[in-house]
Amino acid sequence: MLLKNIQIENFRSFEHYKVENLAQVNLFVGDNNSGKTSVLEAMHALIANGNIQCVCETLQFRETIKAAPPRKDGTIVGHLDCVPLFRRHFETPLDELPRITISTNDDVQRSVSLYLETDADGMSSKLMSACEVDGFVVRNQFARTNADGTLAAKEQPAPELGPDPKKRAPKSPPHLFIGPTGVSSFSRTLKNWGTIVKNRLEKHVLQALQVLSADYQNIAFLPEAKSRADIFVDTSKDRLSLADLGFGVSHVLAIAIAMGACRSGIVFIDEIDTGLHYSHLADLWRSILKISRKLNVQVFATTHSLDCLRALAEVIDTDDTLIDDDIALFSIDRRVDYAVRFDREGVVIVVDHGIEVR
Q1: End-to-end distance of the chain based on CA atoms, in angstroms?
Q2: How far is 193 from 170, CA to CA, in rounded Å?
Q3: Quick one: how far is CA 153 from the chain centroid?
Q4: Among 96-105, 141-150, 151-160, which is the least confidently predicted range?
Q5: CA-CA distance, 224 to 24, in Å (whole number)?
Q6: Which one is predicted more confidently, 56 or 249?
Q7: Distance, CA of 347 to CA of 36 (rounded, Å)
């Protein structure tokens, strides 16, 4: 496992928070606005070595956009607003925002810091990212921001690696974040499918898709695919465009492709049961566990659904091969400073006795 523990400071609604004893497949539950997605975002930033592009992805998924003043032609341009990343009180000045720190003391010690640095003129600033892995500075990176904390248009992060160019920096493992609407861009999906084909993993993706229908027989991408309409699923009678199928099909396909593309890496899935009928959830969990074992992919997912939790308990109760490190459930509540962990037996007890953990 790549992540076993994580500590979070001053990130979104968390002042201090920790999640310990992570498993191969992890499900986070909790009330609305409890911080489930925030935990995934923090883990994503950490495993990506603080890559600002990955941080921006989380802003895009949440549509954290602030409108800029209208242009002369009347058009309005929105900029990603990075201020909500920081834990702040009402009207806290930008130059007084606390530094975000996300870290782990696992076998590989990794730490990421995010902070705003105001320029001398006081009119602009930079979103700074610094990462250390096993004591080595992997990345010092920034993206220029406007005076209100929004990311400046067309500004590209400028990496500066160091301090010793002769020393090989530890690489970030493969990782992907899947929001309720899929990955951050369709081009990413196309690239991931190329990885699947290159490594001959198409059958794993198809088997995952067959959770929804055993009649799905093949998946095909057009060479210049640009949308769901350019992806096709073959059945025994017809070739169907993904755009003509339910959103649940697209969601399962996105999960399966991400896991296949992240061998020995991590996949983050926000609202894992999006678009899915409850009758398919147990088979989805079985498929995720199978691919996770086969390809050594660590999975972190969130849900509000009791049906999703019941389906996970059903799989645990009927699979004698599972061990405690395979699955864990975490109840997230930002009013306390740690996540409550339930092992595989605890998951079954929670469901059987109707204990509310969400």
Answers
A1: 26
A2: 26
A3: 25
A4: 151-160
A5: 35
A6: 249
A7: 18
